[in-house]
């Protein structure tokens, strides 16, 4: 019985410690599912409001009016200079798509593998800000 206990107890302690600290695979899987659902929710809300172009235009005018009343800086001058330059608009869109998403994915992968203790806060921040943004977007489409 003594040898049996000496063999079993270290394995039991190892099992308990593994249960206390989730495995990397489980953590990565959980984060992929969580961020995938977040992206799906974001895409659904954006599609749901995509046909309200007229409302978005009216809201955009209201935002610009609000910015002017508050004395906030405006990007109207810059937009007027480039909005008719088709290639520049395309470059800006490609840059946003090619930089924003890959940078976010690289950051999340780095955090998942190098700074796992940060992931709960990062996940909370992304879910919170995306949810708040989507609620505002539903109420006030731009």
UniProtKB/TrEMBL annotation:
Alphabetic keyword roster: Membrane, Transmembrane, Transmembrane helix
A GO CC annotation given for this chain: membrane
Keyword match Membrane: yes
Membrane-traversing stretches: 24-42, 94-113, 120-140
Residue span(s) of domain Inositolphosphotransferase Aur1/Ipt1: 63-141
One protein family per Pfam: PAP2_3
Name under which the protein is recorded: Inositolphosphotransferase Aur1/Ipt1 domain-containing protein
Species assigned in the record: marine metagenome
Lineage: unclassified sequences, metagenomes, ecological metagenomes
